[in-house]
Request: fold
Amino acid sequence: MSAPNTNIETQQRRHRPVLGGIGFALVFAAVLLLGYFAWLFIQTDGPEGAATQIEPVIGADDNG
Reply:
């Protein structure tokens, strides 16, 4: 059951800082996640044996 004397405008004004803080926390978490993915991408050396891997030729026949 809801309260009988609810002033929506007052409630919106009172909750604005809290909702702004939640929004800031979400944006901050997204920036940290993207930074972590970028750091992982930069730190990788590539697949093992990348220097010796050979691309297969499509349509090549092994019989000569």
